[in-house]
Amino acid sequence: MKIAIITDQHFGARKNSKLFHDYFLKFYNDVFFPILYSEGITTVVDMGDTFDSRKGIDFSALSWAKDNYYDKLNEMGITVHTIVGNHTAYYKNTNNVNAVDLLLREYDNVHVYSEATEIKIDNLGIMMIPWINSENQKSTYNALKKTKCPVVMGHLELNGFAVNNMVTMDHGTPAEIFKGFERVYSGHFHTRSHQEDIHYLGNPYELYWHDVEETKGFHFFDTETLEHTPVDNPYRMFYKIVYEDTPYQTFDAREYNDKIVKVIVRKKTDLSISCIMLM
User: Fold this and answer.
1) Could you say which of 63, 129, 243, 279 would form a disulfide bridge with 154 (CB–CB 3.0 to 4.6 Å)?
2) Is residue 247 over pLDDT 60?
3) Is 3.40.710.10 the CATH classification of the domain at 2-232?
4) pTM to 2 decimals?
């Protein structure tokens, strides 16, 4: 059976920016939902940080998420397994109060995991691991020791993995506690990376400048072979343009409409030119 895995969607990001939500929607409408439909996907695993702010929700962001994401999944008959991440847990020391549980109770197809829980998808045992904090650390570690599940899916902050293309985590949960599992998949870090059988799958789209030129998207996972396959997002938000006295008449800026652009000046012989305007 093939399922879809997506993580760190951060609905309401950038202060509920309409620019970013329009960018998100293009991914969902042009890539995510059409491919789920064509592949006959009936199960989605969301590995955390579905919403951006752990302290509250902008009503328009919640309405956007329901109208453009959850209602569509429900209409398609897709079951969603959602893990609580650090951005959806209200308190830092417990997952008991969390956005996905409180905001999505109307959806019978959405199942929320705020503590370590064993589930089965197509006869495959999967240990769901939400954000590890001071309250649940001991019980989570004990659950990992006892489980017979070959696969872990979680929202983990593992020492030694890439946070982004500039920073590597130098603290956090030791990766050694996941030795012995056949596959470990995680959200939290937005950069795709892996070490042995531990895989960070990355988020679906660019949110900040450190995401620029990184490959984004979601993944398929085969419950029989335990193999995962990336589905890349072709759409970008951030662009770097190198300026070297290029005549503006030859520069086509149409692809940068509604994008965030950084101009890098490498050569400017005419000092009277102070800026470049993208139309």
Assistant:
1) 129
2) yes
3) no
4) 0.93
